[in-house]
Design brief:
By secondary structure, the protein is α/β, with parallel strands linked by helices. The protein folds into 2 domains: about 220 residues, Alpha-beta prism (UDP-n-acetylglucosamine1-carboxyvinyl-transferase, Chain); about 220 residues, Alpha-beta prism (UDP-n-acetylglucosamine1-carboxyvinyl-transferase, Chain), CATH 3.65.10.10. About 30% of the residues lie in helices and about 25% in strands. It has a 4-stranded mixed β-sheet with strand order 22-23-1-24, with helices on one face. A hairpin with a 2-residue loop joins strand 20 and strand 21. Helix 1 packs parallel to helix 6, helix 5 runs parallel beside helix 6 and helix 9 packs parallel to helix 11. The longest helix is centred in the middle third of the chain and has 14 residues. It is globular and about 60 Å long. About 55% of the residues are buried.
Length: about 450
């Protein structure tokens, strides 16, 4: 067996039942990082981005922005060790923006596995002269993008995509403004239209249909307004974005990622005590709701102010959050705004007395995988009493037993199944865990550091 540092694309994790205890640093937020890169690319002047995610989705976004004309000064993803990215303190990217003057000509962008890069950069591609061709891995080629492309077309862009409304797809400018509807089940579509429309030639009216994952649209609005853009909204129904605006350059620190921190916090709730540092209680990230759910289930959750020496750069201050094991009870949870919590909450639910119902997240079927079907299948292999529904999962208390399971190349599935292995009898083997580095570089080393019996090996 190899050290948990080894997280190659075809690696397997072997996990044994463990008690965990310790403190870990939350990796940088993917959602904030990608918004920072995209907006800095459009801004007038040089922006300073501190503590960005420089691996996986972050690397894909940065490369896409460079392809459209942004100039980067600082460590780029290709030169940084991915396995230690979550521990890089003080990393700074200086990004010189284009002041809305993106490069001309035809450009091809491979977004890898990053759906956020695909959607947000598709929007700004509609601001430039020339065709931008987008493609990605197998999961990207399964993700529907036609609603976003249709909305960009309604606002003046030229677009095309493969049959079925998936990648490869193309976008060409320019946005004139106007009125459009867009599928609200993927909040990134709305965020993409908002960011790009501020730089269009005319005003845009954006009407999301049944907007989900609303905290992430609020995050986008907060970024835009902080950088000087005006948006009039009747949230979450109607957004009026005046055209012809400019984004100001900025100096900001990327906060810790609540979505990734949820895995360490839930490991503490199930098997011991875990403290996660680098989190902000007032952050716009929707997945901070993990603490409310764990409290409802009976977990002990404690906050403590983190001493950052005045350098955290985020309003409200950085905090340490500690979650400790207690007896858990089943709950009903609406995951409409937080579908990324589905995989790890399904694991927690197997250890809760009674039944847990996770609902309102049919859009979780359109992530890297159909997460509802995949989690039902893989947890059942571990002995879980679990049932997939149209919009979620029903889970009852179960005695998990080790087995061979598969991540389906989905980073959140890989990490959730690894946490499940901590409470399963015997040995759990999770195939294809290299995908965890997409959002949580060093995840398996983190588990080992807090006491998990885990090893990773290359196939």
């Amino acid at each position: 067996m190899n050290s948990p540092e080894v997280e190659g694309s075809v690696s397997c994790a072997v996990v044994h039942g463990s008690t965990v205890q310790g403190s870990v640093i939350a990796p940088p937020s993917k959602s904030h990082t990608i918004r920072a890169f995209v907006l800095a690319s459009l801004a007038d002047g040089e922006s300073i981005i501190r503590n960005p995610l420089l691996d996986g989705d972050g690397a894909s976004a940065l490369k896409a922005c460079q392809a459209l004309g942004a100039i980067v000064d600082g460590p780029v993803a290709a030169s940084v060790s991915g396995s230690r990215a979550a521990e890089r303190a003080g990393t700074i990217i200086r990004l010189k923006g284009t002041n809305s003057a993106l490069v001309d000509g035809n450009v091809s962008i491979d977004v890898g596995n990053s759906g956020t890069t695909l959607t947000l950069v598709s929007g700004i591609a509609a601001l430039r002269r020339g065709i931008t061709r987008f493609d990605g891995d197998a999961s990207i080629r399964r993700r529907p993008v036609k609603s976003l492309l249709d909305a960009l077309f309604a606002l003046g862009a030229s677009t095309s995509c493969n049959p079925g409304g998936v990648c490869p797809c193309t976008v060409a400018g320019t946005l004139r403004g106007g009125m459009t509807t867009v599928d609200g089940s993927n909040s990134q579509f709305t965020s993409s239209l908002l960011i790009a429309s501020a730089l269009g030639r005319g005003d845009a009216i954006i009407l999301p249909e049944h907007l989900r994952e609303q905290p992430y649209v609020r995050m986008t609005l907060a970024w835009m307004r902080e950088l000087g853009a005006v948006v009039h909204d009747d949230f979450p129904i109607r957004f009026h974005v005046p055209g012809g605006q400019r984004y100001q350059a900025f100096d900001k620190t990327v906060p810790g990622d609540w979505s990734s921190a949820a895995f360490a916090l839930c490991a503490g709730a199930l098997t011991g005590t875990v403290t996660v540092t680098g989190l902000y209680p007032d952050d716009a990230q929707g997945d901070k709701a993990i603490l409310d759910v764990l409290r409802q289930m009976g977990s002990r959750v404690d906050w403590a102010r983190q001493d950052t020496g005045g350098k955290d750069g985020t309003e409200g201050g950085c905090r340490n959050v500690t979650v400790s094991k207690t007896a858990l009870r089943g709950v009903c949870v609406n995951l409409s705004d937080t579908p990324d919590l589905l995989p790890i909450l399904a694991v927690v639910a197997t250890q809760a007395e009674g039944e847990t119902i996770l609902y309102g997240c049919a859009h979780a079927r359109s992530k890297e995988t159909d997460r509802i079907a995949v989690m039902a299948k893989e947890l059942a292999l571990l002995g879980a009493d679990i049932e997939a529904t149209a919009d979620g999962l029903r889970v009852r208390r179960s005695q998990l037993r080790g087995a061979m399971v598969h991540s389906h190349a989905d980073h959140r599935v890989a990490m959730a199944l690894s946490v499940a292995g901590l409470v399963a009898a015997d040995e759990t083997i999770i195939a294809d865990v290299g995908c965890a580095s997409i959002t949580y570089p060093g995840f398996y080393r983190m588990l080992e550091r807090i006491g998990a019996k885990v090893s990773v090996t290359q196939e």
